[in-house]
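Bump. Still looking for Cytochrome P450 structure tokens.
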Amino acid sequence: MTATTPAGRRPAGPGASQVPQLLAAIGRDPLSAAVGLYRRYGDLVRVPLLPRRPLFLLCHPAHAEHVLVARQDNYRKAATYRPLRVFLGDGLVTSEGRLWERQRRLIQPMFSHRRVSGFVPGMVATIGRTLREWEGRPDGALVHVSETMSLLTLTIVGEALFGADLRGTGARVSAAVTGMQDFATTAMRNPLLLPAPRLGLRTTPGYRTWRGTVEAVDEVVAQLAAERRSAGQDRWTGGKDLLDALLEARHEDGSALGPRQLRDEIVTFLMAGHETSATVLTWTCCLLAAHPAARRRLEEEVEAVLSGRAPELADMDRLVWTKAVLSEAMRLYPPFWTLERDAVDDDEIDGVHVPAGSTLAVPPYLVHRHPSAWENPEGFDPSRFLPDAAPGRPRHAFIPFGGGRRGCVGNLFAMLEMTAAVAMLTQRFRLELAPGGVPRPQPTVTLRPRGGLRMVLRHR
Ligand code: HEM
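Sorry for the wait, here they are.
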């Protein structure tokens, strides 16, 4: 199949009469629907969802670069993020314009290389504590990998950014985030959402339960802000954390962040900073079990670099295969499997007219499999991420952290915690697939293994 839509031609895609059928398919499984559209029509697909406001599916690395980087000023977070906005408010992920710029300026320094590097000892201690629970389990026990990874990454974010011990409330927050994602996903598939967002949300099944979930998270968040530890001695950095920065921030007129903005930011970081990394760690465990040669190489690297001791910051650069494995897991199962934007003004992509108000979906899941950039795209092959393995690969063929100014602020944080977690897990255990094998991905806001992931624990 030719992937590119020739310039100047009307883009390929289903006709208006096929839209109801397509909406039903999106409702059932949006990932399969996107893959189906790509296979049938190529890498620039136009779907006439609403009159004058079509949906474009863009799967080529050059499209990703166009929307996320080259013409980023013309694109804002899509209306499909509205269900998320109800939960995250105007936090960094969902805000726009000057408000977003101000927040990003305030928060970015907290994620500098120096600051984030300082989190490594705390991350390692938390990972060690989490894995000790598995050490007590008998060989052959079934462990809940996705749940453990979720609690692990939530605990790390809580401690690093908010100086809070979330081990007690963690399971509640984690379950709430999952509930929020499920609801947001159902809402995003509600055909009423785009023309009538409020009605779309209220008519989505589970709306009431979901409001309850939001309130439960709000309680935890309010408690976090109220319990701000003043001494800070037991904080990882020994210095100021994100919560301090938010509490101390002042607008140009000298006023502090209001309680609503503070709440939105905390909820945003609890969500964006934990479920994503947890999902990658979960898929990584699963892929390693399915590819024993890659796992053996990982075990050898971890032994050669660490000789049985805990990882330190200086080791991170030397755990080259470990990081390649994580990148390959993110290529195949990018947590944010689709990124969506609305066009502010008219644009042209590959010679195709994109009217203002169109929604553009750029799915990393499909960009990461585009044959122009990836050989054997469906295969698991971490060596493609070894240094100098693919000098000519377009930069935006790999966009697990998005791109441009709205790219992930926590990417280094995530890479450090995930590298340490995989290395420490490999030192102690080997995880085997339980009957049923590799689960199918479930496209919610993040791409989770359907039904969670349980694996068989083997001690090394
Ligand atoms: C493997 C882990 C992670 C992945 C794959 C990931 C992916 C992404 C992606 C794709 C975006 C852009 C979304 C869009 O363009 O619509 C994003 C934004 C963001 N991420 Fe991450 N993320 C990860 C970990 C983290 C962590 C650990 C944190 C915080 C500690 C974090 C905080 C954020 C925030 C606040 C934004 C919004 C940035 C902005 O719009 O200015 N993420 N992330």
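The first strand starts at residue 44 and ends at 50.

Edit: fixed formatting.
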